[in-house]
Design a protein that fits this description.
Helices cover 22% and strands 32% of the residues. By secondary structure, the protein is an alpha/beta fold. It has three domains: 1-121 and 258-330, 3-Layer(bba) Sandwich (FAD/NAD(P)-binding domain), CATH 3.50.50; 124-256, FAD/NAD(P)-binding domain (3-Layer(bba) Sandwich); 332-425, Immunoglobulin-like.
Length: 425
């Protein structure tokens, strides 16, 4: 078995992993190893040929591969070592990573700090329990995206898409470009699960109908999908009798949510948040296991790749500081709780001393849309520590608020902080 030593090991080379590796190198880690199971770095960005990436960071509207290539080039220039086509099999609590590839066989990689950046995966038919027959022609939207954009293969001609996630809406447009007919996009919730801009640019602009509070009652077909039966649901997700409709199609795409990929995190014994299925992290993106950091969609599912990159940069900096002995794991940590109209908030805990060195950003998703002006507030009990006003808040779009150096004294006094999003009076 071949043995390798490094200061920081990063698992996953998507936008979070690439940014983490670069930041670790830039913050003093001399040996940074990036481990990727695919044959090339870039992650899911390589199949996302549509524009919309880099608006926050570069102030440019880039396609996914161009955004990824910027960080691939930077990683190479920073002399980040990459192990591609390499599968991580096991990680131990003392930071031994056992991996395998064709060239080296079995590898035992020992790191001073580990960054988990495995990203997320799509929910499948089995996980949303769609009834009906089991014919060919039922795919996740991401699978169809890879086939069309990378493999040059069209999975069907007549589509129904379940879920208004971003990948589903983007694929509705992409399939239309390729000459297919998208009959309907169905969403079980009374609001979008993806970005409003994708609804406008991908569905409205191409006259693709979206039905809210609708789902699929059954899939019809023997060897191949022939149709789907749809039904309206009430506010409690119960079917409304008499609203059934059969829509002829040969392919059903599922865009019904993403799940952080945390099998390795469970193996280590890292505590996971039941609300996000990702690790509990502090503001350094360190998990409950000392020396293990997590970044990007493995923590919670972001809406913009720019936010994933930002998380990767912070995790990489923190991991490098930990590897050098500069980042102290002791000290007071303030718990951050989700309050009114907040589903979850990241980070889960905050080191108040970090506010001496810069702002700390809290990111959250709301539980229901508020289309009128809202206030985002950080509270210690009933006392408002920080507040900002936004024109609206939607579940499909991240909401952020910053704690600054001026808030440090109040934060240090708090036993826990609560974040809420309420209508502006």
């Amino acid at each position: 078995m071949k043995t390798l030593q490094c200061d920081v090991a990063v698992i996953g080379s998507g936008p979070g992993g690439l940014a983490a590796a670069i930041a670790a190198k830039q913050n003093g880690a001399s040996q940074v190893l990036l481990i990727e199971r695919d044959r090339e770095p870039g992650g899911i960005l390589l199949q996302c040929i549509h524009n919309g990436f880099g608006v926050e960071i570069f102030r440019k509207d880039l396609p996914g591969p161009a955004y990824a290539q910027h960080y691939i080039n930077e990683a190479n220039a920073s002399q980040v070592e990459m192990l591609l086509d390499t599968m991580v099999l096991e990680i131990t609590q003392d930071k031994h990573i056992f991996a395998s590839n064709k060239k080296d066989g079995m590898l035992d990689i020992h790191a001073k700090a580990v960054i988990l950046a495995m990203g997320c995966r799509e929910r499948t038919r089995a996980q949303v329990r769609l009834p009906g027959a089991r014919p060919a022609g039922v795919y996740t939207a991401g699978t169809a995206q890879r086939w069309v954009n990378v493999e040059g293969f069209m999975p069907g001609k007549k589509f129904v898409i379940l879920g208004s996630g971003d990948i589903g809406m983007i694929m509705a447009r992409r399939l239309t470009f390729e000459g297919a007919k998208v009959e309907r996009v169905l969403e079980i919730m009374p609001y979008l699960s993806g970005l409003m801009r994708n609804y406008v640019q991908c569905l409205q602009d191409f006259d693709i109908p979206l039905q809210m509070q609708h789902t699929i009652k059954r899939i019809i077909g023997n060897e191949r999908v022939e149709a789907v039966e749809t039904v309206a649901v009430d506010d409690h997700w119960q079917e409304v009798p008499g609203t059934e409709e059969v829509i002829a199609c040969d392919t059903l795409l599922l865009s019904v949510g993403l799940i952080p990929e945390n099998e390795l995190s469970r193996q280590i014994g890292i505590q996971l948040d039941p609300l996000t299925s990702g690790p509990l992290v502090d503001n350094y993106f360190q998990t409950s296991a000392e020396g293990f950091f997590a970044a990007g969609n493995v923590v919670h599912v972001y809406d913009l790749v720019d936010w994933v990159t930002g998380a990767g940069l912070r995790a990489g900096e923190s991991a490098a500081r930990y590897a050098s002995g500069e980042l102290c794991c002791g000290g007071k940590k303030i718990a951050i709780q989700h309050g009114k109209n907040v589903h979850h908030v990241i980070p889960h805990t905050l080191d108040p001393l970090s506010l001496q060195h810069g702002d700390e950003q809290l990111q959250m998703r709301v539980t229901k849309p508020l289309e009128q002006p809202v206030k985002v507030q950080v509270l210690d009990g009933a006392e408002v520590i920080a507040s900002r006003t936004l024109p609206y808040a939607r579940p499909g779009e991240m909401v952020t608020i910053e704690l600054k150096e001026k808030h440090r004294e109040q934060v240090e006094k708090a036993r826990q902080l609560t974040v809420q999003v309420i209508e502006k009076e």
